[in-house]
């Protein structure tokens, strides 16, 4: 597609449930990022993929969070045993890693609400 | 890691200039960025500046970088109601990931 696509756009779940959020990056972009944005805050880095591998997962808050990108394109962010504090907008971005400017192209985000 | 700070809110009249300020801690960022976020939308890159420059002009936008003071600013000339949004500055701190500020909400009044 023309831009970064994220699904679902909205997800409401109950505390303790498992959630998957999907990101389809711009075709040809080798780098993919997940960020989390809480209300009134700037985006907070979670994980960065270069191709299929996670090059930097230092932002994942704990072991309930996991992300994969098995074929180097679509990525899935997985959250186990969701907690109310996980409620946020989860943003995905992609880029040409080789470009010096490092511009990131963001999707519109998946809003997660944990009741 | 990089820390990026911004003032939270700015209100201007339509037609005036807006100046949004940002301070950062890590001077190793090769580029520094300004992103715009409109309600319900993803972040959009507005402009960026290479770290060895002190000014960049792009139509109504002027970016000023003071590396000594680790201060970045975005000036929007002739501010319009369509410029109302949240503006984030961001840097890479020498790595691959962007660290964003808390965002400045710009409100443009008629």
Summarize the structure.
The complex is a heterodimer of chains A (115) and B (110). With 115 residues, chain A is mainly β.
Any overview of this molecule?
The complex is a heterodimer of chains A (115) and B (110). Chain A is mostly beta strands and 115 residues long. Helices cover 0% and strands 48% of the residues of chain A. Chain A is built from no helices and eleven strands. Chain A has strands spanning 5-7, 10-13, 19-24, 31-37, 44-50, 53-56, 65-68, 75-79, 88-95, 105-106, 110-114. In chain A, the strands form two sheets. In chain A, strands 2, 4, 5, 6, 9, 10 and 11 form a seven-stranded mixed sheet that branches. A four-stranded antiparallel sheet of chain A has the order 1-3-8-7, with no helix packed on it. In chain A, strand 5 and strand 6 (53-56) form a beta hairpin. The relative contact order of chain A is 0.33. Chain B has strands spanning 4-6, 9-13, 18-24, 31-37, 43-50, 55-58, 61-66, 71-76, 85-91, 99-100, 104-109. In chain B, strand 6 and strand 7 (61-66) form a beta hairpin. Chain B is globular, with a radius of gyration of 13 Å. The model of chain B has no long low-confidence stretch (mean pLDDT 91). The chains are: A mainly beta (115), B mainly beta (110). The A-B interface holds A 4, 31, 33, 35, 40-45, 48, 50, 55-56, 59, 91, 93, 97, 100-109 and B 4, 30-31, 33, 40-45, 48, 88, 90, 92, 95-103.
Would you count the extended β strands of chain B for me? 11
The computed structural class of chain A is mainly beta
Which regions of chain B are unreliable across 5 or more consecutive residues at pLDDT < 50?
A: none
Poorly predicted runs of 5 or more residues of chain A: none
Tell me, briefly, the overall form of chain B.
globular
List the helices and strands of chain B in order: EEEEEEEEEEE
Helical content of chain B stands at under 10%
Write down the overall geometry of chain A.
globular
- The total of beta strands of chain A comes to 11
Radius of gyration based on Cα positions of chain B: 13 Å
Give the percentage of residues in beta strands of chain B. Answer: over 45%
Mean of residue pLDDT of chain B?
A: 91
Tell me the β content of chain A. over 45%
